[in-house]
Design goal:
Blueprint: H1 2-37
C-alpha cells in the first residue's frame, strides 16, 4: 500500500509539472504572436533617441 501512495504522489507531481510547462509554452507563444502582429503595421516603428547610426566621416 505504501508503494502505491508514493506512486500516486509522484504521478500527481509529474502532472503538475507538465501543466506548468504547458502554461509556460502558451505564454511564450502568446508573446511571440503579439510581437508578430505589429509587423503588419504600415507605419512601422519609429526609433526614439539621438543615437547616431553612422560613423563620423574622416
Amino acid at each position: 500500500m505504501y508503494e502505491y501512495e508514493i506512486y500516486r504522489s509522484t504521478s500527481a507531481e509529474l502532472i503538475r509539472r507538465a501543466d506548468a510547462e504547458r502554461e509556460i509554452g502558451r505564454a511564450r507563444r502568446a508573446r511571440r504572436a503579439a510581437r508578430r502582429t505589429g509587423r503588419q503595421d504600415p507605419e512601422g516603428k519609429v526609433r526614439q533617441g539621438e543615437r547616431n547610426h553612422f560613423a563620423p566621416a574622416a
